[in-house]
Amino acid sequence: MLDATLEMNKPFLLTAEGVTKSFDGFKAINDLNFYLDEGELRTIIGPNGAGKSTFLDLITGRTRPDEGEIEFKGTPVIKKTEYQIYRMGIGRKFQTPSVYSDHTVYENILLGIKGGRGVWSAIFGRVTPAQNDRIYHVLEIINLRDKAQVRAGTLAHGQKQWLEIGMLIAQDPELMLVDEPAAGMTDEETARTGELLLSLAGKHTIIVIEHDMTFVRQLANKVTVLHQGSILREGTLDEVQNDERVIEVYLGKKKHDAIHPEH
Amino acid sequence: MQNKFRKAELWGIAIAGIILLAVLPALNAFLPESSVFHVSDFTINLYGKYLCYAVLAISVDLLWGYTGLLSLGQCLFFALGGYAFGMHLMLLIGKLGQYHSDLPDFMVFLGYPKLPLQWEPFRSFWFAVAAVVLVPGLVALVFGFLAFRSRIRGVYFSILTQALTYAACLMFFRNDFTFGGNNGLTDFKFILGYDIRSAATQRCLFIATGILLILTYLFCRWLTLTKFGKIQRAVRDSENRVLFSGYAAGNFKLFVFVVSAIIAGLAGALYVPQVGIINPSEMAPDKSLEAVVWVAVGGRGTLIGPVIGAIVVNALKSWATRAYPDLWLIILGGMFVVVVLFMPKGIVGLPMQLWSLFKRSTTLWKKVRNQHVGPTEVPLKESSTPRQANAIRGRE
After folding, report:
1. What is the dihedral of CA A137, B4, B57, B79, to 10 degrees?
2. Are the CB atoms for A229 and A32 separated by under 8 Å?
3. Which among A82, A111, A159 has CB closest to B392?
4. How far is A241 from chain B (nearest CA, A)?
5. DSSP secondary structure, A47-95, as one string
6. What range defines the domain where residue A242 resides?
C-alpha cells in the first residue's frame, strides 16, 4: 500500500497545500497540507470539529478555501463547481445518507451510473442493456437486489448508507470520498462495509473518514489524524495510536478508551 | 415509478379526449336549444376558458410539483402568449374599428402616426404563432439563466418571479409601451378569416384548446417518464445530491422553466380569442397566485391534479362571484388554507387519505373490541424491534 510513495517521480493524485478555510473567524481548516497517492486507501480520523468533513467540502467544491491550492491530477479544483469536479473523477458519499427517498433503489443507482450528464441525453437517452446489467451488478454488491423496486425512503438506515455507497460504485470515480460509512450500522454491517471498501481499494483511490476504531483497524491502512484543521500525524494506526501528541489532543476527554477500544 | 404509460391512464385520456373533442362540441352544434342535452354557446366558451387554465395549471405543476420551483409569476408567460396572438387579431380588425382607420383603435386614440415597427410582422399568422412560443420562451430563458446561474432557490426564486411579473405588468400598463396600456387589446373581429364571435369559431377554438390540453398532458407524462423526469424530481428532493452526482442542476431547471413558459404561452394564446380581451391585469401577481392555488387544490406532483384543480376552482369561482361577489377572495384563501393543512395531496390524494383514515378507524375499532373481550393484543415491545435487526444480513 505504501509502495507508491517510494516511486518519487510519480505525481500525487490529490494534493492540498496551504489550505485555510474559516467560518466566522473560526479556522475549520488551518494551513493544511495533504498528499494522496493513486490507489491509496487513506483513513482520516480526528475529534469532532477537526475539519474532516470541511476538508471533503473543499475538495468537492461545496465550499471554497480562503487560501491555498487543491489539485487533482495536477488540475486545480477550487474554482470549479460541484458537478465539474465530479466529472473530473471525484465522487462523494455524505456523512448523513443522502439518497433520493422518493425514487426506487434501482432509480437511485441509475442516476448515479456513469454516462451522459446533459439535459438532452437525459431526455432522449435510454438505459442500455449494459447499463442495466451494471445497475443490477451494483445492487448485488450492496445486497439490495431484491429491494430494487422499493422506495429508497423506506430503507433502514444502514441500507441507505449502502445505497449511497452503491451510487458511488456506479459512478466508478477515480477518487472516492467516503464520509463516515459505518455510522448507525450494526457491527455486522460495519464489518461488511469494511470488506466492501477493501475490495474497492485496488481499483479506486479512497479517502475514508471514520470514528469507529475497530472499523479503521479493519481497513489497516495509512491514517491521517486531523486536529484543529491541520494534520497532527500520519502513519499506520499503531504508530498513530502510540503518538504522544495524538493521545494528548485526541483523547484529552476520554483518555485511552476511544482510540484503544476494548473489543 | 413506472417507465411506461399506464393503460388506465391512456384510457382515461382517450375518454376525456372523446368528450372534449367530439361529444361536447356535437351537443353544442347539432342539438336544438330546447333539448336538455344541449350545451349552450356560453357554456362552450366558459369550458374553453377552463381548459386554458388547466393547461396553465399543468405548466405551474411541472415547475412546482415536479421540480420544486414555486413560480409565482407563471401568468406572465400566459399573458405574453396572449398578447402575441392578440396583436395579430388586433391587426385583422382592419377598418372595422370605431375610428375606421387602418390602425388599431387605441393607436388612433393615442395619436400614433403609423403602426409601430414591432407590430408590423404580426400581420402574419405564422409569425404570431412563432412569437407565442418564442417570446415567453426567451423571457424565461434569460430570466432563468440569470436566476439559476446565481443559484437562486426556494422562496427567493418565488419572490423574484413575482417581482418579474409585477414589473412586466406595470410596463404593459404604460400607454407609450405600444401595447394598448390598461385597456389592452380587445374588440377582435376575425381569426383566420372567420368571424371570431360566431358559435362555430368558438367551437373550433374550444376543440383546439382540448387538443392543446391533451398534447400538453401527454408531453409532460412522457417527460416525467424519461430519465430527465427522474432527475427533475431528484432536483426537487435533494438538489445537492444531484450536483454531487455530476448533473448541472441549473441546466435542468432552466430547461423545465423554459418549457413550462412555452406551455403557459400557448394556453394564453388560445385564451385570448375565447375571452376576447387581453390586458395587463392578466399578468398581475394575484393571477399567478390563483394558478398556484388551483394546483394545490387539485394535487401537485400529479398531472391530473392541476387539471381538476383548475376546473373545480374556476367553476366554483364562476358560481361564487355571482352568488357571493364579496366573499370570493375569502373562499379562495380559505380553500388554500384548508388544502395546505388537511389535504397535502389535494383532491387527487383525497381517496387515499380517506381510505387510510377508514383503515385506521377500523383497526382502532377492532382493538377496542378485543380489549373488551380480553387482552389478546401483542405487547408493544415486540412489535417495535430495532430497525437494525431487519437491515442487511450477511450473504451466507
Report:
1. 90
2. yes
3. A159
4. 31
5. -TTSSHHHHHHHHHTSS--SEEEEEETTEE-TTS-HHHHHHHTEEEE-S
6. 3-250
Phi-psi region of B178 (alpha: psi -120 to 50; beta: other; left: phi over 0): left
Q: Is residue A255 part of a domain?
A: no
Q: CATH code at A210?
A: 3.40.50.300
Q: Which of B266, B263, B264 is nearest to B132 (CA)?
A: B266
Residue A234 lies in a domain: yes
DSSP string over B75-102: HHHHHHHHHHHHHHHHHHSGGGSTT--S
In whole angstroms, what is the distance from residue B66 CA to residue A242 CA?
Answer: 54
Q: Do A60 and B244 touch (CB under 8 A)?
A: yes
> Which of B223, B233, B248 lies closest to A103 in CB terms?
B233
- Tell me how crowded residue A148 is: count the other CB atoms within 10 A of its CB: 15
CB-based burial label for B314 (10 Å; 0-12, 13-18, 19+): buried
How many domains does chain A fold into? 1
Query: Is residue A133, in this structure, part of any structural domain at all?
Result: yes
Question: Cβ A100–B227 below 8 Å, yes or no?
Answer: no
> How far apart are the C-alpha atoms of B264 and B279, rounded to whole Å?
16
Q: Using alpha carbons, select from B2, B37, B62 the residue that is nearest to residue B307.
A: B62
Q: Is the ipTM of this complex over 0.95?
A: no
Half-sphere exposure of B289 (CA within 13 A, CB side): 12
Tens-binned pLDDT, residue by residue, of chain B (396 aa): 456 788 899 999 999 999 999 999 999 999 988 888 999 999 999 999 999 999 999 999 999 999 999 999 999 999 999 999 999 999 999 888 888 888 999 999 888 999 999 999 999 999 999 999 999 999 999 999 999 999 999 999 999 999 999 999 999 999 889 999 999 999 999 999 999 999 999 999 999 999 999 999 999 999 999 999 999 999 999 999 999 999 999 999 999 999 999 999 999 999 999 999 999 999 999 999 999 999 999 999 999 999 999 999 999 999 999 999 899 989 999 999 999 999 989 999 999 999 999 999 898 888 888 876 655 544 444 433 444 334 333 333
Is residue B280 within 8 Å of B80, Cβ to Cβ? no
Q: Do B392 and A98 touch (CB under 8 A)?
A: no
Per DSSP, helices labelled H in chain B are: 7-18, 24-30, 41-67, 74-92, 105-109, 125-149, 154-173, 199-225, 227-237, 239-243, 249-275, 285-298, 304-323, 328-342, 346-373, 380-383
Contact B245 A119 (CB under 8 A): no
**Residue A55 lies inside a defined structural domain of this protein:** yes
CA B221 remoteness from chain centre: 15
Backbone phi, then psi, for A91, in 5-degree steps? -115, 155
B13, B214 contact by CB (below 8 A): yes
d(CA A246, nearest CA chain B) in Å: 33
